[in-house]
Design goal:
This protein is α+β, with helices and mostly antiparallel strands. Helix content is 33%, strand content 22%. The protein has helices at 7-12, 32-42, 74-84, 105-112, 125-133, and strands spanning 43-51, 59-70, 88-91, 97-102.
Length: 138
């Protein structure tokens, strides 16, 4: 979380002037490539394997896609949820983080992975996202 400069940085750069970030009240996602770049830099895939007596092989594999931001960006998390047509939004217990989370395997494979694949992004970000997401194509 960006909580400003540390005391060490303030001492090293005494002439720095803090600039307040503007609040964007009604953001709209106009370009799917923006989602690709944003997801490349801000998202995570979690793959967990846990013992389970409920399945015949004795272990359960779970997949989770997550994007976390400061709570001031909660509206953006809700807009991502609408744009992608899946997932849940929730606040962390400390109320400083807003989370967009997708745990439904079908949603991850049909909505999350196909949506942001754009290897032609100038930053190359779409390719990195694809590289991470192909781990779940088993």
């Amino acid at each position: 979380m960006n909580k400003g400069l540390s005391d060490g940085l303030k001492a090293a750069f005494p002439g720095s002037i803090q600039v307040r970030r503007p609040n964007v009240e009604d953001p709209v996602i106009k370009d799917p490539n923006w989602v690709a770049g944003f997801a490349t830099g801000e998202s995570c895939f979690f793959i967990s394997i846990t013992k389970s007596q409920r399945v015949s092989v004795g272990a359960q594999v779970r997949l989770r896609f997550e994007i976390g931001q400061h709570s001031r960006d909660a509206k953006l998390m809700e807009i991502l949820m609408g744009f992608l047509g899946c997932g849940l939004y929730y606040s962390r217990s400390n109320k400083e983080a807003a989370m967009f989370v997708v745990t439904n395997f079908s949603d991850i494979t049909t909505k999350i992975i196909p949506a942001p694949i754009s290897p032609s992004l100038p930053s190359g970000g779409g390719g990195r996202f694809y590289g991470r997401s192909k781990n779940i194509r088993f």
